[in-house]
Amino acid sequence: MTIEKMKGAVIVQPVIKSSSELRKNYNKVAEICRNNSIPVFLTRNGEGDMVLMDIETYGRREADLATAERLLLAETTRLMGAKGYTVDEFKNNMLQAIKQGAGRNG
What we know:
elongated
């Protein structure tokens, strides 16, 4: 894995291994995934074939994707004319919901 800095941003170069490398050195490839929290791209006959990542990285990526989908839905709904809330309205709604929730658990 190579890490480069470019105008203040950190760019992680992808790790690419052949599928035969995975067969021969599974533990080494898995360690790269776990220790660096990055996917390893696997090739077969010189062509991209699969992506391997540790379960924690996969979980984070799935959570990020779900968040992005919710944001996209909210933005699409807003653009279609759905009612929005001011910061004060949102705050008051949240405080009211907390009070109602506390009353039920109470």
